[in-house]
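Database export, one record per block. Field names are fixed; values are copied verbatim from the stored entry.
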Amino acid sequence: MAEVALHPSIEPLRDLLAMPDIDADVLPSLRASRLAEPPELSDRVERTDHVVSHEHGVIVRVHRPVGVEGPLPCLFSIHGGGYVIGSYDMDDPKLDRWCQKFGIVGVSVEYRLAPETPFPGPLEDCYAGLKWTFDRAEELGIDRGRIAITGVSAGGGLCAALALYARDRGEIPIQFQLLDCPMLDDRQESASSRLDNLLIWSRISNHFGWASYLGHLHGSPDVPAYAAPARATDLSGLPEAYVCVGGADGFRDEDITYAMRLYGAGVPTELHVYPGAPHGVASLFADTELAKRYTADQEDWLRRQLERLA
């Protein structure tokens, strides 16, 4: 199998952040472990949790800058974790920073995980959280006409699917979508998905994540686009997009292809590919120059989008 070189700033850190291949045996201990120390958050952002669905355990956390009067733009965020791990508190550091920097309300959603809850459960949870946010915009101090969505990894895949869902249901206008190394294609046929030395998220983990999420649909030609957005045949009418991914990420090729297809469908799309960057570079290797550039480019695009909507 082919390999790809890591960026020189990442290579020395390879062993410090090695992730095990995820399977059914590893999953319980991985969920129980703390992958990182809880970040120190500022007191300049107020955070409140709200129950969207008692039945399904869907919760949203609303992040609002202290002392900033509404109505404000809203960024609805979906955490990553390969559809099988993770929690909405993973979004706390990002929204702590962005709520202050851009004067926005951030909403992060706690959705059910696979394999206990396969597709469409997690996507329905995300849509329920978005609909809850839209319906309560006035009491939350949110401008209904300035709601956007973002997600990382599996959260990026759910974000892309949510954009398709919202377009087709016609209930909630979404202004833009920020897709950070999104997990889009279950087929694993691209060159990057078959790389041997993938850091953080391996081919084995990716296979397990998709098999868990798709359940009986896995391996079928009938996987719907709402489950794997790379399979969508019609990308027209979707909100403006930003797609970013590392050159040493297994999702590299599917993300590049999706961005090109969005642009081909008439969706204004900005694509950034970072040579040698592994999966999750922005959060897991945050102190490197590469990660800082990765984040700065996202924030520049986000600033421009918010200025466009002002």
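Remark 1: The chain is about 35% helix and 20% strand.
Remark 2: The domain at 11-34+41-309 is CATH 3.40.50.1820 (Rossmann fold).
End of record.
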